[in-house]
Amino acid sequence: MSTFREALAGAQAPLVGLWNASGSAVAAEIMAGSGADLLLVDGEHGPITVSELLPILHAAAAYPVTTLVRVPWNDPVIIKQVLDLGAQNLLVPMVSTADDARAAVRAARYPGGPGEREGTRGIGSALARSSRWGRIAGYVQGADSHVSVTVQIETADAVANAAEIAAVEGVDAVFIGPTDLAGSMGFPGRPSEQAVVDAVDAAIDAVRAAGKPVGVNTFAEADADRCIARGAAFVFVAADVTLMARGSEAAVARLKQARTEADSY
Asked: Mean pLDDT score of the chain, rounded to an integer?
């Protein structure tokens, strides 16, 4: 399967993504079949264990969508497990410094020979889906070509360090999370505050100046339009759980309101 790095390089327009936050393989398949370019499986806030991730990857694999997995933390053990399971595209949250970004890249890479790349990923590919249980010839030597690493900027410190984070070798893209960024700036639950919007725009500019693709989580249409106009290479525009929540509310709201009005006569 093509990596997120390759999808970005070959894109003729900004890529559009959806979240699978429910942990449901059925929901993942519905999202993957929607025409979206990207599917982001949320292992940070979603109720998804490593073993529960596998049927989600199976469900998405049947569709022309690039699947990313957000790990719970910048933890080499979790990253190793998720990669061995066959996830190719990692999203690592709460990366606030260049050192954080380098740690994520090292965790996603196998050790190299003397003078070659640094890596700490444990070599168990013959036992893992990532190499199709040893059926991909030379998987360990060529694993970097099968894996992409995206890091998530979502703190004020990360915005200040955005250029240095983006410049880290092995970081393929940077993703901005306005909600946690708002919290770190003293505006919890208020990502539309102008100071937060300005910080997002500054991070977009810094990452692009460093020569890396940048994306933003934008559930509001106006935010997506603004970020794309500023140069975002990808945006995520909705999640399965929010679509179900808002859609189910809208489905019953009209008739409930009509019933209420009728009862008032």
From this structure: 96
Q: In Å, how far are 59, 124, 196 from 87, measured between CA atoms? A: 13, 15, 32
Give yes or no for a contact between 185 and 196, defined as CB atoms under 8 angstroms apart.
Answer: yes
φ and ψ at residue 256, rounded to 5 degrees: -65, -40
Q: What's 34's DSSP letter?
A: T
Residue 163: burial class (beta carbons within 10 Å; 0-12, 13-18, 19+) = middle
The closest of 11, 52, 8 to 175, measured between CA atoms, is: 8
pLDDT surpasses 70 at 260: yes
- E strand or H helix that includes residue 150: strand 148-153
Domains of the chain: 4-263 (3.20.20.60)
**CB contact at 8 A, 119 and 106:** yes
Residue 38 pairs with which residues in a beta bridge? 17, 66
Give the H or E element holding residue 204.
Answer: helix 194-209
The pLDDT of 217-222, averaged and rounded, is 96
**Does residue 237 sit in helix, strand or coil?**
strand
DSSP string, 85-118: TT--EEEE----SHHHHHHHHHHHS---STTS--
58 is catalytic: no
Residues 6+ apart with CB under 8 A from 157: 96, 97, 184
Contact 202, 33 (CB under 8 A): no
- Total Cβ atoms within 10 A of residue 216: 25
Nearest by Cα to 150 from 88, 243, 202, 226: 88
Catalytic residue among 45, 132, 246, 259: 45
Instruction: Indicate the pTM of the whole model.
Output: 0.95
